[in-house]
Amino acid sequence: MLGCVRIATVRQMAEVITAEEADGRSYVRRAMNRLAELGLAETNGKAGKHPIWNLTSAGQKALADGNELPPRPRASTGAKAVKAGFGPHGVAVTDMILAYGGRKHLTGWQVEVNHAIKETGLSFNTDAVFALPTKTSEVRLFELDNGTMSQARLAREVWDYERYAGHRVWEGARGTIGNTFPFWQRHRYTRSQTFPRLHVVLGGKEEHLLDNRLLALADDVKGIAVAVWVNTLPRLQRGEPWHEIGVDDPDRRRERYPEPVGR
User: What distance in Å separates the CA atoms of residue 107 and residue 101, rounded to the nearest whole number?
Assistant: First the structure.
């Protein structure tokens, strides 16, 4: 689990490895202390009163050597994020993953996935990316706002996804007419037929405040040309439905973003 989500509490790990309705926290706590003695796991901070666990570099290497996960050479242990004070956010991301059904397909998740386009200078990290185990490797993108950023900044981060989806690249031999293609489809999500849906999850505040934030976000991104669904973390954990606030529209994206110049 820590190889996929990077950081988690004993409660979260017990939720994954023990039977439903069972409390396996004591078992997990003993297991993690044993891994710590072996130098494979460690704690670097807390979420409230609960220690946050992460693998060490040695733990990641042992996991990679066991071929239990797809290769993730650039993945960090998460220790620096916890030490920098981002532990509560990371724990909330793990809660979001578990609430979305991460227990069933945990190895399909990656966290802190960078999306960048060098030519435009656009670069941002997606909190979590889920590759569904289907023939087409369907992908879902997840952003978790834990109540720490302004409404304006949250909206800008959502609009970044449209800017990323709208960028096109020119392809063709020199001297030919060539053609343009979406950057994401050529260089990132090559098996996806449409740009991955973005899921925004709101947490970190009282539920009525989250509802207000949801409505404000819907207004701030009105007319966006990528698929955006939003929910609050409490409602997601209760299994309640998502709100659709953005629709995928590649034609509208093509109108909004300039075509690259051919060679």
Answer: 12
State phi, psi for 102 to the nearest 5 degrees: -60, -20
Q: Look at residue 57 and give its three-state secondary structure.
A: helix
Amino acid at 197: R
Encoded tokens for 58: 């040695």
The per-residue pLDDT string of the chain (263 residues; one tens digit each, 9 = 90 and over) reads 888 899 999 999 998 887 766 788 899 999 999 999 999 999 999 988 999 999 999 998 888 887 767 666 666 788 888 998 889 999 999 999 999 987 778 888 999 999 999 989 999 999 999 987 676 668 999 999 999 899 999 999 999 999 999 999 887 666 666 688 999 999 999 888 899 999 999 999 999 999 999 999 999 999 999 999 999 999 999 999 999 999 999 999 999 998 876 54
| Token pair of 4 as six digits | 């996929």
SS3 128: strand
* Residue 29 near residue 14, CB atoms below 8 Å: no
Helix axis angle, 87-99 to 10-17, nearest 10°: 20
